[in-house]
Design a protein that fits this description.
Elements: H1 3-21, H2 28-35, H3 39-46, H4 49-71, H5 78-95, H6 97-109, H7 114-139, H8 148-171, H9 177-196, H10 204-210
Helix pairs in contact: 1-2, 1-4, 1-6, 2-3, 4-5, 4-6, 4-7, 5-7, 5-8, 5-9, 6-7, 6-8, 7-8, 8-9
């Protein structure tokens, strides 16, 4: 069997083991047994448990980002682009619950260098969502456009909500990717749409000052 294929089998076994058992509890013996190889071969290919876990994070992060990007068609209206991106995100996390557990739960709770790897992925998704929200602002013909800081802040909030909702959806029987995406779309889009058209929510003190 080609090395690349064998290595992917080991990675599949590692993601499943790390996702279900956790980084600390997972053992190289378990991973080797699940992959159908010897433990020395796992060490030969992937060096150490830490390096194996890092490789799993990188692989799963790359797959998630690719899924979100490929799910969006640039020619669609802004709301349809966001809907497509959310559906792609929740579809991927639902189909790969162990991979999502590695990214969302395991990597973030075990310090460096794992947390940094996840932040690289998150920053890429936030940048992509920032572009979608900026496109929505342009589509709404706002002039001047929303300040960059406001757009980035909205993207951070939306990505954070998606991450939390994906964990809930994977832990709640019967919640589909479409339902999770619709939940977040209903939560976020009404506010985003109002903001794009110059109807932001304002604190009471500011509303009083406008009277």
């Amino acid at each position: 069997m080609p090395r690349a294929v064998r290595e992917q089998q080991m990675m599949d076994a590692a993601v499943r083991t790390f996702g279900q058992r956790g980084y600390r509890a997972a053992s190289m013996d378990e991973i080797a047994e699940l992959a159908g190889v010897s433990k020395p071969l796992v060490y030969l290919y992937l060096n150490s448990k830490e390096e194996l876990f890092t490789a799993c994070i990188q692989r799963e992060a790359k797959a998630l980002v690719a899924a979100v990007r490929s799910g969006v068609e640039p020619e669609l209206p802004a709301d349809r682009q966001l809907w497509a991106g959310l559906r792609a995100f929740f579809t991927h996390t639902a189909k790969n619950p162990d991979g999502w557990a590695v990214l969302h739960r395991q990597a973030r709770t075990h310090g460096e260098p794992f947390a940094t790897e996840v932040m690289v992925m998150r920053d890429e998704i936030v940048a992509f969502v920032t572009g979608l929200i900026g496109a929505a602002a342009r589509e709404a013909h706002r002039d001047p456009a929303l300040p960059d800081r406001d757009v980035t802040g909205l993207a951070q909030a939306l990505v954070g909500a998606a991450e939390s909702l994906a964990g809930w959806a994977n832990d709640t029987p019967g919640v589909s990717a479409k339902e999770a995406a619709a939940t977040l779309m209903n939560f976020a889009w009404a506010g985003l749409e109002n903001l794009m058209h110059g109807r932001p929510w304002l604190p009471p003190s500011q509303l009083a000052g406008q009277r």
